[in-house]
Each structure stands twice: as C-alpha cells, then as structure tokens.
Design a protein that fits this description.
By secondary structure, the chain is an alpha/beta fold. The chain has two domains: 2-63 and 251-267, no CATH class; 85-245, 3-Layer(aba) Sandwich (Rossmann fold), CATH 3.40.50. Helix content is 41%, strand content 12%. The protein has helices at residues 9-18, 42-53, 67-74, 107-119, 139-146, 149-152, 164-171, 186-193, 217-230, 235-249, 254-267, and strands at 2-5, 34-37, 56-59, 91-95, 124-129, 156-158, 174-176, 198-200, 210-211. It has a six-stranded parallel beta sheet with strand order 6-5-4-7-8-9, with helices on both faces. Strands 1-2-3 form a three-stranded parallel beta sheet, with helices on one face. Helix 2 (42-53) links the parallel strand 2 (34-37) and strand 3. 36% of the residues are buried.
C-alpha cells in the first residue's frame, strides 16, 4: 500500500492540535509500505512520515498536465480569452492563496502589493484578493487589511472563490503569490500556461518569473515593480521560460515517466529498487 501525500501534513497535523481543529488526522493505524511525496514537502514532512509510519519515504517528481485547465478554458463565456494580454497601463493583480492554513495565505502577497504601492503607485491597478470573502468578517484580518494603503485607497477588494482560468482571463494581468514550505503549486503552472507574469518566493522555481526573497515584502515590491514595468518587453523570453517550466513537470516528460516507472516496479517487485529521485 502506497500513501501519496501531496499536502504539507506536518503543518496541518500541528494546526489540528493547536487550533483545535476537528478530525483524526492522517495517522489511523494503517500500515503503509511506502509513502510518496513531492519535493516541496521533503524538508518538513519526510522525517515526520518516516518516523510515524515506520516506512520508506520517496520524493517523487511534481507533475502537471493541461487536461483539466483546458476543460475549464473551453467553458469560459463567449468573448473571454484566456492568456496574458500586454498593453494595459495599470496592471490588475490577483492573489489566489486559499487561506485555509498557514502555508498559503494572502497576507504576504498583500504586503508585497502594499510595499510596491507605497514606493510608486503608478502602474498598479485593481488588486483582487480571492478566497477571502469570509476573511472580511474576521476581526484580526479586518484590522490587518484596514492598516494598508491599498485598502484605504480602494485599490484592494476581497473576493470569493473562483475558477482560476476564469479569474485569470477576466480580471488578471499579474499573479502575486507567497508560500511557506510549499514551493511547488499547480497555480504556478496554470499561470505559466496562460503566460501570466508570476511574482513568487519559491526557491524550487528559481530563475523563473519574478522571484523575491521569502518574508521580504520590500524585495517582493521590487519583483512586482519589475513585472509591472518590464514584462511587456519580455514576452518572447517569458514564453520560452513558461514552456520550459511546463515541459519539466509534464506527465509526458521522459524523466518523469522513467522515475514513476521505477517507483512502481520497485514496490511491485520488479527488477531493482526505485532510485532516489531527490
């Protein structure tokens, strides 16, 4: 039996404990032969899994395919086009963090936008914070938000949960993200598929998009200002970078197919054991 763990279970297990969240967690007494998890969870979860489950943990390639997003793109309203459109003087910014646990929340993307807006408000259009409709009624979040210039000036709004392709096509010129020990994200690939500029803090995407140092709003502001001012002049270069990123995580990528084939052969008693992928 293989458990394919694709969330940051260490963090979520701790949250169940300290935040009083209900549920029994991931440990239910079932004996697992191997656990597979993705590279972004290796540091926080690998030893956690190995010790509790008493089994081998294998770090497997993160994979993505356009199958599902293509279906959603095909369902977009008539006249709505998915894909980055250059030329806007004021760039609309979208924040898609789910706000369901600490690894991905809107706080730092908002701080990045705030720092950039304070430095120079030109070129920054509307800022849409999605998955945040319930946060508007949270006293602590309300106080946090009301202390920001982007909120006081009416630049930022707090929205419900939307289909990502729809929101990208309808309201987005730049995607601003932040993660904590969750450096690979399907959102990144969806944005790259549409060639939308991605402002991010993921070392696992080093060299791609507009990267900034984690927990550094001022460096995030630099990256965002760079995207606002320079992205339209870099479209061909960014097109190539996006394609290279997606090719690397493709389910058709030979290295990915070979890695999973070796893993399956290993657990099924095929020739040799699965090699360490990472």
């Amino acid at each position: 039996m293989i458990a394919y763990r694709v969330g940051n279970d260490y963090v979520m297990e701790i949250e169940r404990l300290v935040a009083g969240k209900h549920g029994t967690g991931i440990f239910n007494g079932v004996r697992i032969d191997e656990i597979w998890t993705n590279p972004q969870h290796a540091r926080t979860c690998r030893s956690f899994f190995e010790t509790v489950y008493r089994c081998q943990v294998r770090i497997v390639p993160h994979i993505w395919d356009s199958f599902f997003i293509d279906k959603l793109i095909g369902e977009l309203p008539s006249g709505l086009r998915f894909g980055y459109a250059p030329g806007a003087q004021d760039k609309r910014i979208a924040i898609f963090e789910p706000n369901i646990n600490v690894v991905k929340t809107a706080h730092y993307p908002m701080l990045v936008c705030e720092a950039a807006y304070r430095q120079d408000p030109s070129g920054i259009g509307d800022i849409f914070v999605t998955n945040a409709i319930d946060l508007k009624r949270h006293e602590a979040f309300e106080r946090f938000a009301l202390g920001l210039d982007i909120v006081q000036a009416g630049k930022a709004s707090f929205e419900a949960r939307y289909s990502t392709p729809y929101f990208l096509a309808r309201f987005t010129d730049i995607v601003v993200t932040h993660q904590w020990e969750n450096g690979l994200n399907y959102l990144y690939y969806d944005a790259a598929y549409g060639r939308y500029p991605l402002v991010h803090n993921s070392d696992l995407l080093s060299g791609f998009g507009y990267q900034y140092a984690s927990f550094d709003a001022q460096d995030g502001a630099r990256a965002l200002r760079e995207a606002v001012r320079q992205h339209d002049a870099r479209l061909e270069e960014y097109e190539q970078a996006c394609q290279a990123l997606l090719d690397g995580v493709s389910i058709r990528n030979t290295a990915n197919v070979t890695a999973y084939d070796a893993l399956l052969r290993g657990v099924c008693g095929g020739a040799g054991l699965a090699p360490a992928v990472a």
